[in-house]
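Hey, resending since the last one bounced:
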Amino acid sequence: MKKPLLFLLAAALTCLLAFGLGYVYFSKMHGRSLAIDDSVKAVDWLRREFSLPPAELEKVQALHREYEPRCMEYCSRVETSNARLKLLLENSRGMTPALQSALDENARLKAECRTAMTEHIYRVAAVMSPDAAT
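The structure tokens again:
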């Protein structure tokens, strides 16, 4: 009983992590955030991939809608931090207190974002049945 649950949790974590990393990559490469339609497509992909029944899908959608503004806020804050860091790096000839502060802040924001995303992944996995991945 534990192995299927662990497999489901690992599969859900892997999929959601891939989605999160894809989101960050897309945002960086194209200079914009994913549209709401893309977010809906991601939840639809989870539905198809894990054969989620309607009740579980509703719970996953609710969790996703709840988390999305938080995710967008983190993305915005990280993008702002990245821009500040880039500007400091372009105008600096060595490490300065301002540059060190910007590096620290950027790392802190990214760690907060990863933590929030991991918590979200666990919440989503918790509403999925152990049989969802089979």
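Helices lie at 2-30, 36-49, 54-90, 97-127.

Sorry for the duplicate.
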